[in-house]
Amino acid sequence: MVLYHLIDGFFLGGLYVTIALGLTLVFGVMNTVNLAQGEVLIGSAYLTYTLASLTHLDPLLCLLLVAPIMFVIGYLVQRLLLNPLIPRGQETLLVATFGLLLVAETLFGLIYGNNTLSLSASYTLTGVTIFGDTVRTIYVIALVAALFLVVGTHLLLTYLPLGKAIRAAAEDPGAAASIGINVPLVYGITFGLAAAISAVGGTLIGLSFGFGPTTGSSWLLRSFTVIVLGGMGSLWGTLLGGLLIGVLEEVAASIVGPQFRDLIVFAFLVIVLIVRPEGFFGQRVGVAK
Amino acid sequence: MKTSPASAARLAPAATWWRSLSRLAPWLGWGVLGVLVLLAALGPLYLSAFDLVLAFTLFNYMTMAQSWNLLGGYGGQFSLGHSLFVGAGSYTIAVLLLHSGLPLLLDLVLSGLLAAALATLAALLLMRLREAYFSIGSLGLAMAALTWMLNWSFTGATSGLNLPPAATLDYSTLYYLALGLLVATTLTIVLLVRSPFGLRLMAIRDDQEAAAELGVNSFPVKLVTFAISAFFVGLAGGLIALNKLEIEPDSAFSMNWVITMIIITIIGGIATSTGPLLGAVVFFTLQQVLQNSQALSSLLTGLLLILIIRLAPEGLWPLALKLGRRLGEALVSRLDRSGSTTTATALAAEEAVRGRSTLSDG
Amino acid sequence: MQAASTVGGGPQQANEAPLLVLRHVTRRFGGVTALNDISFAVRSGELLGIIGPNGAGKSTLLSLISGAQRVSEGEILFAGQRLDRLPAHAIARLGIGRAHQIPRPFGRMTVLQNVLIPVHARRNEDPGRRRLSDDAEEILRLCGLLDRKDRQAGSLTLLDLKRLELARALALRPRLLLLDEVAAGLVGQEIEEITQLIASIHARGVTIILVEHVQAVVRALAHRVIVLDWGRKIAEGRPEEIARHPEVIAVYLGSEQGEQAPAHQTMSVSEPAAAMAAARESDSRHTLPSARATSTAAVRPSPPPLLDVQHLSVDYGKLRALRSLDFSAGTGEIVAVVGANGAGKTTLTQAISGLVPVSEGRILFAGQEITRLPAHQRSRLGIALCHEGRRLFREQTVRENLELGAVYATRGATTSFAQRLERVYDLFPVLRERAGSQAGRLSGGQQQMVAIGRALMAEPRLLLLDELSLGLAPAVVDQLFAALPQILAWGISVVLIEQHIQRSLAVADRVYVLERGRVVFCGTPDEVRAHPALQQAYLGVAAAPASPAGSPATSEHEQHPVSGS
Amino acid sequence: MSTVCKAARSLFLMAMLALSMVACGGTGGSSNQTIVIGATLPLTGALAAVGVLLKAGYQAAVDDINAAGGLEVNGQKYHVNLVILDNTSDPNTASNQATTLYLQNNAVALLGPFTPPLVIPVSQVAERVKRPLISTTAPIEAWLSARPSGWQYAWDVFFDEKQQTSMSFQVANMVKTNKRVALFTDNEEDGVTMGKLWTEEAPQFGYTIAYRAIFPVGTTNFSSQIAAAKAANAEVLITQMTPPDAMALWKQMKALGYHPTIAESEKGSSTTTWMQALGNVGEGALIANFWSRSFNYPGSQELAARAQKAGIKATIEQAGYIMGYSITQVLFDAIKRAGSTDPEAINRAIGQTNKTYPVGPIHFGSNHADPVQAIMLQWQNGETVQVYPPVSGVSLEAPAKGLA
Questions:
Q1: Do the beta carbons of residue B286 and residue B300 sit within 8 Å?
Q2: For residue B200, which of C487, C123, D151, A237 has the smallest C-alpha distance?
Q3: φ, ψ of residue B163 in degrees (nearest 5)
Q4: Which of B168, B295, B357 sits opposite D5 (nearest CB)?
Q5: I need a labelling partner for B241 at 20 to 30 A (CA). Which of A102, B85, C363, C463 fits?
Q6: Interchain proximity A273–B299, CB inside 8 Å
Q7: Residue (of C417, C421, C414, C410) closest to A180 by Cα position
């Protein structure tokens, strides 16, 4: 049974990675905590839902369109709203993203109603046998997606000119600007990229569980735990943090009972922050290799 | 008042008039204060039961935002965990009323004290964290407390507690309690901010390292600020429980409390002592007017927040002061040019009073 | 001022046990050793000067004493008590006050409130609130800030902020005062005022450690001087001795050029009296702008210059950093910009490259107006900036840094990426070897090469080099300067900011002398060498520090016409 | 000086507010010809699906009485004004809105929201202002325990949970199982109360609780618990959890290959979103209710038809509509009987209710609660049908089709 919790938590952790990655990217590059991350996730799920019910395509296939749309939305939000606020400091950005959270939550309710929706696909109802235990196929897909996203983001940041520009802008916006990097553009792209990555996380949430207008905040809290554990803004830290939180949740739930699952996760969040605010793995995206 | 020397010379009569008004300001202030205290104290005489309930809720909003502002505004510690203290206050008074024979007022004070004790503990834990880390840490603590309360059978777990019917106070008593708490909170915070302690607090906010090199020990300052802020929020939580008579974790520890405090403070003006009061009026009015369409209400609140942070990040109160001062100056100069200082309107007088105190509005 | 009565005594009482002792103090940041095995003692009532080039570790040293930073090794004793284990606030309450080089006011509080903070910190002698605020006002009067006590600290001018720094440190009623470049960014009258202020504080018996770039101030005040270079103590002695110390000369002037220009060296360093005389001869800055106008017109190249800066003003909040400044650089030129710290050199390069907004004036580049263009677009037009402090992307490799320089830069480049990379590698062969290393792991000299290389990768038409040799060993500096002719040969114009003044004069076609945000002189290196304005601006020697000046308050009003707005 | 100024300014604002309150105070009054009835309902948020059904039911009853010329009290016809506020499923808001409705809108009585977390705070307000409230919520036990001294002004109509628990096992008895039960309940009031009852009652019917899971609302991943239930070889599944959580559980049981014979989904499958979200997986889920098409109380079929026309198609949703309609009628009858709009009189009259309404006979006990008859429904082909007590033409599908 313990082995089962480990395995299940591990795969579930993959899902957590996909939801926290966007937060990591934004914090790593812009030093901003995006309080509306939950709404980015849920918004993507709604978009996928709309597209899937219009076209009857597979939700994961819909991502091909949803991710670019989320990219554009993220880009525009950053350029039009957040970018002018950057000089005013973190607090201002916190409040601005908080305003976005309120607006987005309400809009979801107005547009889609308040019922819990979920995305359907054949693989959400099947399992895969691993070491003799059955794990939901969608979790396996999530883990693969997580690995794909982390490695992909890493490659992008490391090898593509755009990625290098992102890292340069993260490390020293002034120096970056003076070698020809359009820093606001890079920030906008980063935010858009984070939103596009979150589109994957959001769609996976919709497939694995369900979502309503107000579900976002619980995923925001989950994401916080993941990135705090991994070291705020660290790419590989997010991967490790997500997997660890997944395992921790499942194992803790099995030991002290599922009703204490959240208590343990939040207590863990606080303890990690107090003991090692920089997290346990690695450094910020912008400066991490 | 930033009239340049040259223009001041040109506008001599009006400027004199202006200055003499400013000198009158404190007396004007005392006068208005007296009238208002009287008006508020006599509330139950001319207000309906429903108005009393509204005022009760509004006063609590003001108290909570004011307290949050002490830590978040003057102290620069952007707490996302203040819901914890609302819940702690609510639960303390409920538990005491149910299990102890202590008088109600003492229970109320104890609920504030317990919140303060919890805050001291929280401050010890979160002391090292700054900026986003502090915010997330405080949020984590509040969420941990909520999940704990959801499972604690002593406080009824998810069902929560029901206050004994004997604890039912009439609306005018609740009104006076909330009013008293608001006045006490505002006075305490205004005095505190003006005291050496307040100076130290703001110095830490502006530059903790520089403050340390000038002999400011940030540790006790942060600790006490956190405790005081939580004390008043805890008292407000106790009052809320006394009004609702029924509490359960999800609403007592709801994130909505801290969200409300932040929205009110930001809208009204962070790190000003009038801002939270004004913000509460704006927020509460919006809530009441639009209570038939909650969606529109929260949509507008969100948009208002974004607009404020984008266009007037200091908040409405400093904005109003700025506009008022500009208007006042324009009026003075116009009056002076036309040479008639006789038609001194009440409006201009008020602007003068307001404009004068901007400089001191920390 | 109460300090006099409490502390008592003055420089005369210097025989007792030292007030402050540093023993083998070392401070490391990660792999970098900022201070290496520093030992010295300060007697009660002494005024100790600490000098050294930028990056020598002076500010770090003060941070260790004030407790803002922890020592890595060694110990610090104050009146026999260990300081290095105490938190900063406890050290402050022992009576150690510090004024920062870059003022750190509590910007949202008033001037009086700023000063009240340290006044309240002296709790053990609390004689009641009324007395304390009287005390604060007394200190503000002493520092010439009394009439501005209700202003928001964030709205003060630089001089006033420096005064506020001093006032706050004094309000601790310190036994030991740590002054970090209090005169930096000030000139002439202002330096004089601050010097007098320090002298009067010292006369009241306060022991002072003075870190200072403006040597005139050090010379006028210090009993003893310690010279730091690159974290090491290289000399210690009386000010006159230090001025003749060969290693100090090397540090300030560079070994090679120091020999090549013996005449100048004699004048500027070895003979302070002569320097002062020269300064007096030049009398005041106020005559200089006209001189500047004529000489600028004469020297300005006849075809339209590549870079033409007209009446440029830059403000940082209330502080005007550049004042209606004219500047130009022609194709194929090396233009040197010299001036004291805070004269506006870095601001000039940043304004040209678009990193700070321009308040007034225009900037033309290759005939195109770029005044309002964002930084990255200017870079793409061919303006490359090599930042002070290098500002490499430390976690990325050398090659990645170079690539980043190329990818987003100049449009219409004539050479291919590979060609440019080869050129940079040929220029600095060591970079080819270290191509795969993380930039942050290189030595300072190599990092500077990467920084220059990164700027060159854009195939710029104008290269702005801000503090080319800052904190580098002479041998490395030689290497860097040797690269300049090659860079010129590629058709790149250079604007050079360099603290090794003789070196920059040796390579420059033209020289601008900046002082307090203005061009006070412009001409060929020879003209500059012959002109006393250089000494005035670079060494900050204004009128003789000893002569008493008028009341600070009145002169302040004349100096800052904008301060009231 | 500025301290004084500041305090003065603060108070000035308060005065402005006080004045504005006085100004607003008079607006909500009722004319002689109008009776105001209020309701704070969860029209958005987690419980919105049920809230809109109750709203439609309340509104239909009020429309009917107004169409008939109004409510006749003491020979005079009153127009009924129903004021409905949306509490976004938030207890704090519900409490505030109840106060508003009573004191500001001068509602003589309130119709209730739904579920204990919302009904209890509103009931407390009713007690405080001493005006009646009729609500419908399960479990009654949780509602009763909230005020040990007994409710004076709040009334509740719902089926009795004891009856419901026994029914769960009686339904399970209809097919052959190993009588091992996996019990999933969340930690909300109803989950806690019901979980306890099922655990207590199981032995009487010869069932063992082979696996018991308690978890917070909002739990998303149930893999471990499902694995444990599977390992415990439980063929009977009983759950009481919110719709989102129940849907997540059902999907995951399907994915992980857990095939219970009996699968009861209390609360979770109470609206058509169940089938919309789950598709075929939701088939075969059981849920207790108080009304089905087989009921033939006066007016009940007509109401069902009206609900159908209003877009409320599933039987289980029509039940909510009919319940809403019925308790509104209970209130109207009480007002008529009271012969005045005095809340005290109305409250007394409610206690005397004894009549058959579309939802069934209603008669309050001394504890202010009325247990109506419970029945068991099963989702079959996207619709709920009554499987217990058995009706002709319908049979219990087991094992649960969606999970098989």
A1: yes
A2: C123
A3: -70, 145
A4: B357
A5: A102
A6: no
A7: C410
Domains of chain C: 3-253 (3.40.50.300), 260-382+461-541 (3.40.50.300), 389-456 (no CATH)
Tell me the C-alpha distance between D180 and D177, whole Å: 8
Considering only CB atoms, which chain B residues are within 8 Å of D44? 294-295
pLDDT in tens, A88-107: 878 888 889 989 999 998 89
D191: CB partners within 8 A, 6+ apart: B158, D185, D214, D240, D241
In a domain, A20, yes or no: yes
The answer for C253, left when phi > 0, alpha when psi is -120 to 50, beta otherwise, is: alpha
pLDDT tens for each residue of B263-315? 999 999 998 888 898 899 899 988 888 877 778 888 899 999 999 988 888 89
| Helix, strand and coil in chain C, % to nearest 5 | 45, 20, 35
Reported ipTM exceeds the 0.90 cut: no
Q: Is D280 in CB contact (< 8 Å) with chain A? A: no
Amino acid at A215: T
CA distance A11 to C147: 68
Q: What are phi and psi of D219, to 5 degrees?
A: -65, 140
- A159-193 pLDDT tens trace: 888 888 898 888 888 888 888 888 899 999 999 99
Instruction: Show the CA angle centred on residue D335, arms to residues D334 and D339, nearest 5°.
Output: 115
CA nearest B305 in A: which residue? A99
Highest mean pLDDT among A240-254, B24-38, C434-448, C550-564: A240-254
Kindly give, in sequence order, each residue whose CB lies less than 8 Å from that of residue C294, ignoring residues fewer than 6 positions away.
none
Residue D207, classed as helix, strand or coil, is coil
Q: How many CB atoms lie within 10 A of CB C11?
A: 15
- Touch between chain B and chain A: 3 or more Cβ pairs under 8 Å: yes
Cβ(C421)–Cβ(C457) under 8 Å? yes
Burial of C26 (C-beta count, 10 Å sphere; 0-12/13-18/19+): middle
User: Across the interface, which of A172, A181, A289 has its CB nearest the CB of C376?
Assistant: A181
Three-state secondary structure call for residue C306 = coil
Inspect the interface and report whether the beta carbons of B210 and C89 lie closer than 8 Å.
no
State the average pLDDT over residues A213-217: 87
Q: For D162-289+377-403, CATH number?
A: 3.40.50.2300
DSSP code for C442: S
Predicted pLDDT of residue C262: 35
Specify whether domain D34-159+294-373 bears CATH 3.40.50.2300: yes
Predicted confidence (pLDDT) at residue A58 exceeds the cutoff of 80: yes
User: Which residue, among C243, C210, C252, has the nearest Cα to C470 in the 3D structure?
Assistant: C252
Q: For residue A131, tell me if it sits in a domain.
A: yes
List phi, psi (to 5°) of B102. -70, 155
Distance from chain centroid for Cα C141: 28
The per-residue pLDDT for range B201-255, each reduced to its tens digit, is: 999 988 888 898 888 888 899 999 999 999 999 999 999 999 988 888 988 998 8
A221 interaction partners in chain B (CB closer than 8 Å): 139, 143
Structure letter (DSSP) for residue C438: B
Q: Cα torsion at B225, B231, B233, B236 (round to 10°)? A: -150
* Interface present between B and D (3 or more CB pairs within 8 Å): yes
Chain C: touching chains (3 or more CB pairs < 8 Å):
A, B
Structure tokens at C239: 């000010």
Phi then psi dihedrals of residue D262, to 5 deg: -115, 130
- Contact between D225 and D184 under an 8 Å Cβ cutoff? The reply is yes
Asked if C71 and C37 touch (Cβ cutoff 8 Å), the reply is: no
Beta bridge pairs of residue C23: C75
B265, A98 in Cβ contact below 8 A? no
Residue C380's identity, in one-letter code, is R
User: What does the domain layout of chain B look like in residue ranges?
Assistant: 49-254
